[in-house]
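Suppose you are handed a protein chain with no further information: no name, no annotation, nothing but its sequence. What can you learn? This example shows the usual starting point.
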Amino acid sequence: MKHEIVAIKKFVIVGPYTLKIFFDDSTEKLINFLPMLKGEIYGPLVDESFFNTVQIDPEIKTLVWPNGADFDPSILHNWDAVKDELFSRAAS
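A reasonable first move is to predict its three-dimensional structure. Written in structure tokens, the prediction is:
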């Protein structure tokens, strides 16, 4: 996968663990993160109130949480192509 440089402009919480993400290239993605919320870093995000503390890092322009969890913006931008692999890794 080509590593693109993209930035998140804004997001909207649209449901439990689900964000609509708007990128600087006018792309929009609707992502349900629940299948990814496992392990030491992402597991705490299962607490929905904690998940909803998500913000955009002003420097790297990606989604971040207070515990240090984040996602590479190019992964989010290409979610449809990479989500199955990420879900598989999270499940193991």
